């Protein structure tokens, strides 16, 4: 087939493209993914029983804020990386900011605590499985978001995979925090971030093959 | 921004709105720019140029919904051409064949070359390997110029299935070029 024949073939009958395809695709993926992740949390883990009392404590909201702000930054990064030629600009800084903020808060808490209390503030009760549960909860979101990315056109595949994983991980952590009873900033700054990094690392590893087009 | 940028962007935006003759003009003009751009970067692999022009055109078409009219077209096209060029070189495991840096975004519309060599890969032959539900809608609509309604009548499947068949078939064609089953 000659190139001119290909051009005629591609152009003939090419209908109008529906408006806002990115928004629609990401909204679908986030909606179904969050539904799956929430369902998984509610059925397998359950919402913490004392959530009403916990919601009166500022730390409960700080714990929600970290993954929520990370989620916003990762969503920006993922959307930009899904389209050829778009630049990240200041998005990496927007992703780093909540991480640095929680580490700063953790440092203040640790410095203000007695030395013998510090291990408890870092390890809490659930450090051994918290990161794994966050990674496991992120699976429905991760799958849905990979589907969304696959239908778009990322050109930096490892980076796009990492951003997709980060977004799924932040969503998983946000929903996990409704189950988790830990309330110390040092715990959040270590184990939550570790849990969020697991899907991000997996995304970076599988991006080049999973997102190829 | 260059005159080509404005002109091509205008053609594409109208093409994305469903104006097929403008879209045809866009692809035609784009192919000449792509050919010049890729010829300059594949000077050690001249036989690959026309295949890559075709592969990039197919990618631009399949991914055309990711173009945002607020974005410079040069950046969008350059990113796609660069991506397909690197993909080709990876496939050949010969990244050293690349003798020019790829970070020259503004050059993508700088030159134009309408002298097409023959493609070595015959897309018509690849098309024959598609399953009927994708191949027939493409042949009727895209090669014989039928409308969706006519193609649906000719194949005996629904209009929605015709559209899906064309869309998936062109994506499958791109996957075959990449060497995926």
Mean pLDDT of chain A comes to 95
Tally the helices of chain A. Answer: 10
CATH class (first level) name of the largest domain in chain B: Mainly Alpha
Strand content of the residues of chain A, in percent? Answer: under 5%
Please tell me how large the radius of gyration of chain A is: 20 Å
Overall pLDDT confidence of chain B: 87
Series of secondary-structure elements of chain A, N-terminal to C-terminal: HHHHHHHHHH
Beginning-to-end CA distance, first to last residue of chain A: 21 Å
Could you tell me the number of beta strands of chain A?
0
Report on this model:
The complex is a heterodimer of chains A (213) and B (181). Chain A is built from ten helices and no strands. With 213 residues, chain A is mainly α. In chain A, helix 4 (58-81) runs antiparallel to helix 5, helix 4 runs antiparallel to helix 9 and helix 8 runs antiparallel to helix 9. The longest helix of chain A is centred in the last third of the chain and has 26 residues, at 185-210. Chain B is mainly α and 181 residues long. The longest helix of chain B is centred in the first third of the chain and has 22 residues, at 20-41. In chain B, helix 3 (49-62) packs across helix 4 (73-91), helix 3 (49-62) packs antiparallel against helix 8 and helix 7 crosses helix 8 (159-177). Chain B has helices at 3-16, 20-41, 49-62, 73-91, 123-128, 132-143, 148-155, 159-177. Chain B has two domains: 3-109, Rna Polymerase Sigma Factor, Chain: A; 123-177, Orthogonal Bundle (Arc Repressor Mutant, subunit A), CATH 1.10.10.10. Classes of the chains: A mainly alpha (213), B mainly alpha (181). Chain A binds chain B through residues 1-4, 6-18, 21-22, 82-86, 152-153, 155, 212-213, and chain B through 15-18, 20-21, 23-24, 27-28, 31, 50, 53-54, 57-59, 61-68, 71-72, 74-80, 82-83, 87, 105, 116, 118-119, 122-124, 127, 138, 141-143, 145-148, 163, 166, 170, 174, 178.
